[in-house]
Amino acid sequence: MTESDGATSSQKCDPYAVGYEECENFLRGVEEAMGTENSGVLYALWSYPAQLADELSFKEADMVTILQKPEGSDWWWASLCGREGFVPNNYFGLFPKVRPKSLC
User: Fold this and answer.
1) In this structure, is the dihedral angle defined by the CA atoms of residues 15, 73, 79 and 50, taken in order, positive or negative?
2) What is the number of H-type helices and E-type strands within the chain?
3) What's the order of all strands across the beta sheet hosting 63-68?
4) 83-88 and 92-93: which strand pairing?
């Protein structure tokens, strides 16, 4: 989800652009695959300090395993280094964040 308007990636496809349906279908498929493909492994795109006892803290680039995706919930049950807890699903990606290298 984007911070500016809370839209998911599939909602960012331009409905007036050529290939809109393909864009939306592809990105919706990626959204659905999150936490189920690749044995449930996802990568943290940002750090998150747990706010409640049942939440799981993680750092950017941590590799977590999604154990449960409750229907209609923005919080998934995950494990990291032998610990388990709820994580906000919009902090993760299928791949780690790529940082640009300096040209100098």
Assistant:
1) positive
2) 1, 5
3) 83-88, 75-80, 63-68, 41-44, 92-93
4) unpaired
How many Å is the Cα radius of gyration of the chain?
15
Amino acid letter for position 43: Y
Q: What's the token pair of residue 93?
A: 């990606």
pLDDT score of 5 more than 80: no
Q: Which of 1, 9, 11 is nearest to 46 (CA)?
A: 1
Q: What is the per-residue pLDDT for 61? A: 93
Question: What is the reported pTM?
Answer: 0.74
Letter string b/e over residues 17-28, b meaning 16 or more CB atoms within 10 A of that residue's CB: eeeeeebbeebe
